UniProtKB/TrEMBL annotation:
Lineage: Bacteria, Pseudomonadati, Bacteroidota, Flavobacteriia, Flavobacteriales
Name this protein carries in UniProt: Zinc carboxypeptidase
Signal peptide stretch: 1-17
Statement: the UniProt record of this protein carries the keyword Protease: yes
SUPFAM superfamilies: Zn-dependent exopeptidases
Single biological process term from Gene Ontology: proteolysis
Keywords in alphabetical order: Carboxypeptidase, Hydrolase, Protease, Signal
Superkingdom: Bacteria
Annotated Peptidase M14 domain residues: 38-171
């Protein structure tokens, strides 16, 4: 009887350490956790270890919880503990068919809590346990046709079939709203988004996308690219993990070189970069065994914890310095193009690409000969130069009628000052001159691109309650990338302003014929311009309808607000 408590203790210790194995560890190495197993694991871990907190902080489109797990050994609240420290934030399962990060993060949180690996002193480690919950629940074995395990996994689209990794600006999903809220709460210094690659075959298990250094900003971009990421990867190599930038080619072979992936703001790291966070997309290689992929994902996160722990002061200082680049009156690049004269040579470790007749069609097909390894220099193009620039204004003015935009800015903690009384303000305004639109729906939208605006200025009336938005704030890049119509992922391009592209009133030809004739008769300057247009444009000279339309568009009858962009600039 006396020995019973000891025995009991032994048994409970035994079952306890057993139960803190993750489903991935308990399985055959080719299995990933389910959503319910994951939650139960973290909830029990949090119960056992005060350094782990596990809380619901958002909601999937299907109503299921999006949970955030935090390792914070300080006994203070997150808000207090983060002071003077850096925050690493990891996102998992945005594409649940690529679950490596979900399993790796469970093990890492556990290993930090149990002291299996040394807790960093200067970093708070935070993660979304799994982001696309409805996708994770939609398990199957076939949707990733080219992937080598796990045996079963979730689906890429969420419950409403959105690819959440295109939704960071347009915010169609509740998931995206939740992410923005969580991100603005955590305000991380460094961000990692865990994925699995598609594309060519080569020797690497670990590939990565460093967020575009140019959009990140000169100081932070150069520091991240030349120093931080290089050190992280060297440390990985010391552990025997070789790496290569995401092999950004599809349907071709990498031997001819490849450019850095452009993670515009619609993507996770494109969004986080707008708030001055350093971002990496981990892309483990789809054809490598699942357990090897989980291991390198784990290793890279540990590597980050160690690096940030040592360099948190430098990181914070670089982040602060970097923001100074975006002062009012400075130039800001809205579009970038690849500089094809600049590249670095990568010692690329590939498999020989070979060709043989297809068993299906008899036509020539590509295959990679894994017995024929090579290592040779391949060009990696990683320099982008501005293709379109604007001047950063002092303020935007946003009428309260644009409540959808105002709501998204609020979600991102953008400072906005309501106008106290009705006022006429001298502002600069854009007219949408031209744009193209994709022919088929893309992620729930008919996305515009190649947008081109012209500028006008004058006094415009605003109402009490409309908003003045200063650009002298931390979210300056977010404001520019969403509110400048020519930016690739602007709210304009994502269809938020399509209503103003339509003309509301028009004319009947037989009535306006007489009005137009009267206008030309009474307005000499108009008549001269009209005749001039006819003389230089022979097609116009032969087109009666076009001539009438010309007079209409040059008269008071034409809607002044047609194609006038309803967000204003003060320089
Ligand atoms: Zn992915």
């Amino acid at each position: 009887m006396k020995n019973l408590p000891v025995l009991f203790l032994l048994i409970s210790t035994f079952t306890f350490s057993q139960s803190f194995q993750t489903p991935f560890e308990k399985g055959n190495g080719n299995q990933t956790t389910t959503f319910d197993e994951m939650r139960k694991f973290y909830q029990e871990l949090a119960k056992q270890y005060p350094s782990i907190s596990y809380e619901t902080k958002g909601e999937d489109d299907n109503g299921a919880p999006i949970d955030v797990v935090i390792f914070n050994p300080t006994k203070q609240s997150f808000e207090d503990a983060r002071k003077g420290k850096s925050v690493l934030f990891v996102n998992n399962g945005i594409h649940p068919g690529e679950p490596d990060g979900i399993d790796a993060t469970m093990m890492l949180m556990r290993d930090l809590a149990t002291g299996k690996i040394k807790a960093p002193k200067n970093v708070i480690f935070t993660a979304i346990a799994n982001y696309n919950v409805s996708g994770m629940m939609n398990r199957g074995r076939f949707s990733r046709a080219n992937q080598n395990g796990p045996e079963e996994y979730g689906f890429r689209g969420n419950a409403r079939n959105y690819d959440l990794n295109r939704d960071f600006i347009k915010t169609d999903s509740k998931n995206s709203r939740s992410f923005q809220q969580i991100f603005q709460w955590l305000k991380p210094d460094v961000f990692i988004d865990n994925h699995v690659s598609n594309g060519a075959d080569y020797q690497y298990t670990f590939t990565y996308i460093s967020t575009n250094k140019e959009r990140l900003g000169t100081i932070l971009g150069n520091y991240f690219n030349d120093e931080m990421q290089k050190t992280l990867l060297k440390n990985m190599e010391k552990k025997g993990v070789i790496s290569v930038p995401y092999v950004n080619i599809h349907g071709d072979v990498p031997d001819g070189g490849f450019p850095a992936f452009v993670d515009s703001p619609r993507y996770a790291t494109g969004y986080t970069t707008l708030f001055n966070s350093i971002g990496t997309v981990v892309e483990t290689h789809m054809l490598k065994p699942y357990k090897d992929r989980v291991k390198v994902t784990y290793d890279y996160m540990v590597d980050n914890l160690n690096y940030i722990d040592e360099n948190y002061k430098t990181i914070q200082q670089k982040r602060a310095e970097n923001l100074k680049q975006y002062k009012v009156g400075n130039r800001y690049a809205l579009a970038w193009k690849l500089d094809s004269t600049k590249y670095e040579n990568i010692d690329f470790k590939g498999f020989e690409a070979k060709y043989k007749p297809s068993d299906i069609s008899g036509k020539t097909r590509l295959w990679y000969d894994r017995n024929s390894k090579f290592s040779k220099p391949v060009k990696f193009y990683n320099t982008y130069v501005p293709a379109k620039e604007i001047t950063i204004p002092k303020y935007y003015v946003i009428p309260q009628s644009e409540w959808k935009i105002i709501d998204l800015l609020r979600l991102n903690q953008i400072k906005m000052i309501p106008i106290k009384q009705d006022s006429a303000i001298t502002v600069e305004q854009y007219r949408i001159k031209d744009f193209k639109t994709v022919p088929n729906p893309y992620e729930g939208h008919y996305l515009h691109y190649d947008t081109f605006v012209t500028k006008e200025s004058g006094k415009t009336k605003f109402r009490a309650g409309d908003f003045i938005v200063p650009l002298n704030q931390d979210g300056v890049k977010f404001l520019l990338e969403t509110l400048e119509p020519e930016a690739v992922d602007s709210y304009f391009n994502w269809n938020f302003f399509d209503a103003m592209l339509g003309q509301k009133e028009y004319y009947s030809v037989y009535v306006f014929e007489d009005t137009a004739a009267k206008l030309l008769k009474e307005n000499k300057a108009l008549k001269t311009a009209f005749e001039m247009e006819k003389s230089i444009n022979p097609k116009f000279a032969q087109d009666g309808d076009a001539q009438l339309d010309w007079v209409y568009k040059h008269s008071e009858y034409y809607e002044k607000t047609h194609r006038l962009y309803p967000i204003f600039r003060i320089n």
